[in-house]
Design brief:
alpha+beta, Class II Histocompatibility Antigen, M Beta Chain, Chain B, domain 1, Immunoglobulin-like, five-stranded antiparallel sheet, 13 strands, elongated, immunity, Class II histocompatibility antigen, B-L beta chain-like, Ig-like_dom_sf, signal, adaptive immunity
Length: 246
């Protein structure tokens, strides 16, 4: 039915149009926020002009040009057309129900990262950031713990942000001044976890990692100098000429 409707509208404009280039197309949309809030649309365009559309929220076809208003009036009085559109609306809502049911059973585990940054012009010298990426469904709880106790002061959060691809992310910040023996934990609760996940950070472990990185870099640099020295020695050895005694 929709294809015949498209053909009728486009043929009409093909006959009456004086434009040099002719291009027409139709779109079918099933837009929804929930099963009970789905809208079925059939839209027609010709040479970038919006000719008209069927909208399930009003259950009629509306024409937006002088040529299509009359045809839209005829379609809306046609019981066969209305019956077919009702079937299309039911297909739309049934597909939405199936999609939402499938998504409700889908869970994607988040990727969590802790980062430490220095803060200037604040009462605290540092800020810990707990970033939680690429999770589904949307509902999630992120909590800061200090030595096992919940921290609420000096904590800010971005709220849950959409990635635009059905996945979400959230970032929570904790301002603090490092002290010896402190242990901070980012606690993440999500449907993809059987139990809350704990991601720990403490100043000593951070310092140890930095020392290890410096030591590793030193060893790598030493290896480079050693390799250069060996190559230089071998090259000079091959270039030497033995001089026989007199």
């Amino acid at each position: 039915m929709f294809s015949r409707c498209v053909f009728t509208f486009l043929c009409l404009h093909l006959i009456v149009s004086r434009a040099g280039a002719l291009f027409g197309y139709g779109l079918i949309r099933c837009q929804f926020n929930s099963v009970h809030d789905a809208v079925y649309l059939e839209q027609l365009y010709f040479n970038k002009v919006f000719l008209g559309q069927f909208n399930s929220s009003v259950m009629r076809f509306d024409g937006y040009t002088n040529y299509t208003k009359g045809i839209a009036n005829l379609l809306n009085k046609n019981p066969v057309f209305i019956k077919q559109e009702k079937k299309n609306v039911l297909k739309c809502t049934s597909h939405v129900a199936n999609l939402l049911d499938s998504l409700s059973k889908t869970v994607i585990k988040p990727y969590v990262r802790l980062t430490l940054t220095e803060v200037k012009g604040s009462s605290h010298s540092h800020m810990l950031v707990c970033s939680v990426y690429s999770f589904y469904p949307r509902d999630i709880t992120v909590t800061w713990l200090q030595d096992g106790e919940v921290v609420t002061d000096d904590v800010t959060t971005t709220g849950t942000l959409s990635n635009g691809n059905w996945l979400y992310q959230i970032h929570t910040h904790l301002d603090f001044t490092p002290k010896f023996g402190q242990k901070f934990t980012c606690k993440v609760e999500h449907a993809s976890f059987k139990k809350p996940r704990l991601y720990e950070w403490n100043p000593m472990s951070q310092s140890d990692r930095e020392k290890m990185a410096v030591g590793t870099a030193g060893m790598a640099l030493g290896s480079v100098f050693l390799a250069v020295g060996v190559i230089y020695y071998l090259c000079n050895k091959n270039d030497r000429q033995l001089v026989p005694g007199g």
